[in-house]
Amino acid sequence: MLMSKRSLPQTYVEGEDEAQTLIVTLRDATLGVTLELAYTIYRDRPVITRSARLINHSEQAVDLEKVASMQMDLPTQPLDAISLPGSYARERQLSRERLHRGVTQFESRRGASSHHMNPFVALADPNTNEFQGNVLGALLIYSDNHQVSLERDPIGQTRLTMGINEYNFDWRLAAGDSFQTPEVAMVYSTTGLNGMSQTYHDLLRDRVARSRYKHDLRPILINNWEATYFDFDADKIQSILDAAAPLGIEMFVLDDGWFGHRNDDNSSLGDWFVNRNKLPGGLADISKRTHDKGMRFGLWFEPENISADSDLYRAHPDWVLGVPDRGRTLSRNEYVLDFSQPDVVDNIFEQMTAVLDKVPIDYIKWDMNRNLTEVYSLHSDSAHEGETSHRFILGVYDLMERLTKRYPQILFEGCSGGGGRFDAGLMYYMPQSWPSDNNDPIERLKIQYGTSLVYPISAITAHVGTSPDELLGWSTSMKMRGAVAMSGTLGYELDAAQLSDADKQAVKRQVAFYKQHRELVQYGTFYRLESPFESNTVAWMFVSPDQKEALLFTFVILGAVQPEPHITKLAGLDPQQTYVETDTNKMYGGDELMQLGRYTTPVQTSDFTAQVHYFKAKD
Ligand code: GLA
Question: Are residues 246 and 107 in the same domain?
């Protein structure tokens, strides 16, 4: 069938000699089915990818109830499994557990890679830490239901199986047809978790992301969501633009609420035309106002979902996922469009191009604010119902492919109720993603630390929000919020017009500092030094490829009356170099910073403090 041939995101090469692929063909003579196992090994990266393709050479249809992308048996030894579980606003928390006899399973059944479990696992020797030891990572390049199974057998071997979740999956493979699984990217490191992460960062940036922005400095943006929610008009936006431009902010993103008659989350998803009551001059006017300020203009869409109160739903109630003659479950007052159907995808494509062809738009935030329930297509039949979830994501990928190809000048950012679809599949289309709606910098330490285990810093957007924080109500300094957000791709999630003069000056300084160092942050080598999952002091750093520059961030979560002095050891520097810590003018040897370390600035009583130090090689 046509859609089973739609392409999947995957790793690629830019030159023939970069990698070699071995295809092992297995044939089941009884069924008349062939299984091709594809192994691609990169010449200069410790990476092997694996996927499978099943071809039905028989005269009859074959039902695939489970088809994994990879399986591997690891020899006898104790192993730790490292995974990235989470929830809404607490995405990708690092979890590590010793594997015992039996089956350990990590999965998503939510129709998305999900907030709950990232499609990634690492198997590490028990003595492996951030800097030393052996570890094997396996990352599924896929954004829908996934399953990782780790089975430790009676002789202590561990069988790793990874792929599309068998839950709710049943693919009828017609005679003569084939089924391609998503790809797994395996990385092996003998230099601990940082070594594994650095290989993933390079691979995802260089050979999974395809956007023309994949190596570009990312613009510093301001988004109006937490500043206005649905309550804005052109004057309100103008006031944000007027305040943000002089601070050096480079892009304004108009978030949810600009279309249909949407003034709250009860209506208008699916009606992608501007709300003239709110914005009488249309999007062209907002785009012009933004460009007139010398800023780029970005726009929010949620293409896959639909409100019951929308023209699209009234015209096509059958375009929604659901079980015939049964109720459908609303989540955030939304239904999910049946993207397994090409007509539905075409309609959304046409609506979006009607906007994007007319208005100069530089960036799109692509949201997906609910998970899938009642995953049945009203246009399918009982023999094919088990295909709906995979066909849904193929439809999503198809829309992303068409739009990213047609508008290569647009920078796309993924989002899903925060970080509910932060995965390598999305990175193939969009070089950056919103990791969490949680902007509290203390919570973000864990979210960004966990996310960095696999995903490059250029892909992890991080915004300075307000204090007290919108979700938790915790109060933190502008310095703390800035330091955490500057550890990713920086942006602002606040009303610039409401900032005090002191905060405006602080933002201006942050923006200037970030512009000076963003190449190092976004494209330098990232080292996790001290983990928020293990200690009250958190540290990470960025080193330039030539080791002549480094940026160190240290955070102390809770203050203490008489804190013991804390020493942070740096990494990745040239041991022979002398480095100047530019804010203090102190000089250190590279070997000294890495072996003896430097004191984390002593903090007396305050909680939630951050220090940022820039080191430059003396010569
Ligand atoms: C999601 C996103 C937010 C914002 C809202 C708008 O929750 O994560 O950043 O865009 O949707 O509805």
Answer: no
Are 50 and 180 in the same domain?
yes
Residue where a domain stops, chosen among 208, 229, 260: 208
For residues 144 and 113, the answer to whether their CB atoms sit within 8 Å is: yes
Pairing of the two strands 432-433 and 461-464: unpaired
Q: What per-residue confidence (pLDDT) applies to 601? A: 72
Tokens describing residue 519 = 């190449």
Among 208, 241, 264, where does a domain finish?
A: 208
- Among protein residues, the one whose CA lies closest to atom 1 of ligand 1: 417
Cα 241 → chain centroid: 28
Residues 6+ apart with CB under 8 A from 574: 547, 548, 590, 617
Q: Is residue 45 scored above 50 in pLDDT?
A: yes
Query: What residue ranges in 440-559 does DSSP mark as E strands?
Result: 461-464, 489-492, 525-530, 537-543, 549-556
Which amino acid residue places its CA nearest to atom 6 of ligand 1?
256
Give me the residue label for tokens 């297509």.
Answer: 377
Residue 332 lies in a domain: no
In a domain, 245, yes or no: yes
For ligand 1, whether the C-beta of 437 sits within 6 Å is yes
Q: Are 74 and 158 in contact (CB under 8 A)?
A: yes
pLDDT-derived band at 3, boundaries 50, 70, 90: very low
Residue 547: CATH number of its domain:
2.60.40.1180
Q: Do 560 and 508 share a domain, yes or no?
A: no
Q: Could you tell me if the CB of 367 is within 6 A of ligand 1?
A: yes
420 Cα to the center of ligand 1, angstroms? 11
**277 and 167 within one domain:** no
Angle between helices 478-485 and 441-451 (to 10 degrees): 10
What is the whole-number distance in angstroms between the Cα of residue 463 and the centre of ligand 1?
A: 13
Do residues 480 and 608 touch, judged by C-beta distance below 8 A?
yes
CATH of the domain at 488: 3.20.20.70
Kindly report the number of other CB atoms within 10 A of residue 315's CB atom: 11
Residue 604: pLDDT above 70? no
Q: Do 27 and 78 fall within a single domain?
A: yes
Supply the residues annotated as catalytic. Answer: 367, 437
Structural domain contains residue 572:
yes
Are both 456 and 351 inside the same structural domain? yes
Q: Is the CB of 42 under 6 A from ligand 1?
A: no
- Look at residue 509 and give its three-state secondary structure: helix
Q: Looking at the 3D structure of the chain, how many domains does it have? A: 3
Q: Is the CB of 269 inside a 6 Å radius of any atom of ligand 1? A: no
Residue nearest to atom 4 of ligand 1 (CA): 225
**Within this chain, do residues 231 and 269 fall inside the same structural domain, yes or no?**
yes
The 10 Å CB-count burial string (b at 16+, else e) for 175-203 is eebbbbbbbbbbbebebbbbbbbbbbbbb
| Domain limits for position 584 | 528-617
Query: Which CATH number do you get for residue 53?
Result: 2.70.98.60
Interval 317-361: pLDDT, tens:
999 999 998 989 999 999 999 999 999 999 999 999 999 999 999
594's tokens? 């890495």
Cβ 364 vs Cβ 312: under 8 Å: no
534 and 585 belong to one structural domain? yes
**Cα distance between residue 347 and residue 349, in whole Å:** 5
Q: 68: which DSSP letter?
A: E
3 found inside a domain: no
Find out whether 93 and 533 touch, Cβ atoms under 8 Å.
yes
Ligand 1 pocket, 255 CB below 6 A? yes
At 282 the three-state DSSP class reads: helix
